[in-house]
Amino acid sequence: MDPEGLARLDRRIAGCRACPRLVDWREEVARTKRAAFADWTYWGRPVPGFGPPDARLVIIGLAPAAHGGNRTGRMFTGDRSGDVLYQALHDVGLASQPASAHADDGLELYGVRVTAPVHCAPPANKPTPAERDACRPWLVQELRLLRPTVRAAVVLGAFGWQAALPAFAEAGWTVPRPRPVFGHGVHVELDAADGPPLGLHGCFHVSQRNTFTGKLTPEMLRDVLRTAATAAGLPPTKRG
């Protein structure tokens, strides 16, 4: 475990300007704002991962929301997707509170770190393949720093799955060939030549489209989180 290394990585991520389109978009959103958040000073930068440096479970999303993480500076904080995720984490005993409004609201994650393969808010929530690939080294470094303790991962959505598999490979785990196909509830064991395996779990993304239509229900999300937490050696509760 290297807490200082992870803190340094977070600072470097927050200063990245590698993708011109994403830089322009995140900063334009931060200037123009949404009317409901007119009195906010937007973060308007890449959003680092969130959670303890000795996490046993990592949750990988897609990218920060324009008026969520791009506003608050914390992953899945300040938008409805985050409301769903943190409620579920609280329900299974992995978060200190069920909601996350801003970066200083006191939310703590227990043994869990939340991150993304793309750290800047993209237009229409759609990073390009080139932007995904340019951001991958950050995820690879984060996974390497987490390797001493992390034992399971939950990947939200097909985009995150496709982006995360090569990052897991570069970070030292063996990804099967052909690559496993994404699906809700899919579970794959990734072996490592120099350490314990990683339990990889697929889950539909906590997007409004999925949660409003019932494609992903709170119970479905809690089930995946409980399964992954057990695989990681964390003690989920039975609430919710």
UniProtKB/TrEMBL annotation:
The keyword Hydrolase applies. This is Type-5 uracil-DNA glycosylase. Gene3D superfamilies: Uracil-DNA glycosylase-like domain. It holds the Pfam family UDG. It comes from Streptomyces tunisiensis. The keyword Transport does not apply. Residues 48-225 form the Uracil-DNA glycosylase-like domain. Belongs to the uracil-DNA glycosylase (UDG) superfamily. Type 5 (UDGb) family.
